[in-house]
């Protein structure tokens, strides 16, 4: 038999949870419990995905992406455990651990390769977390000008005043600010205009059908032009095929990230990939129309 839980939400409307939803809630509970007990230093690690400059085929930056190998739950996807860490109230401590690890990794790359680190919604509006991150960055010995912080539109719009203040504090130290998943949130261009952005990352959703869909092409072209007009670097996310690359190049896209170039890699493998790409960088630059 199926078990149903009925709850009143804040408007007094009855919300019915099916057994499936209940299982999901239990799953969240188990994840939060495992997270609270987790040894972040040992169970959390980072993989790195390059952003490639298609003009030179050189690596412009690596984005640090979190992975959690729980001894009890196995590999949990970041979208799941980041949300669980927010709900469990331990995201700040997690982000600080990840930032430390990312900065150590950046030291093993040449100085011209930038590092991108994602902040969660909660991080962006936490003065305490941003204070701690600024200390960690200062103590790391990595030039803050080599670092980009990735924030999503959704995170920023949730509490614009607080987010904007924290973003400004990061930017004042010379840290770059990347707007992640651009085009998926409820962005207001006037808000975008008020943030000290240095990079805009076009969400994968617009790239999937870029080779065949005229509307996706128009949208991407608009974002590329917007980025240029406000002095931002534009990066496309989630590029998987040669056809997509050709279409994106024709729209003026230069910075690209996606499985076509590389999947997120362990730190040891970023060094191997770098050796390969350096030989490409030194080769004559292809003419790309
Ligand atoms: P994101 O920051 O937008 O990262 C891009 C995601 O797309 C990554 O998934 C990446 O592995 C995936 N991806 C890259 N290229 C391709 C492609 O060509 N095709 C497809 N299908 N996917 C591609 P991942 O690592 O599972 O991360 C998912 C999300 O979890 C991230 O989205 C980010 O929002 C969050 N996340 C990951 N690491 C962290 C972290 O350290 N801190 C925070 N706060 N969030 C993180
Ligand atoms: Mg990101
Ligand atoms: Mg993204
Ligand atoms: Mg995305």
From TrEMBL:
Keywords: Membrane, Transmembrane, Transmembrane helix. It comes from the Bacteria. Residues 28-278 form the EAL domain. This is EAL domain-containing protein.
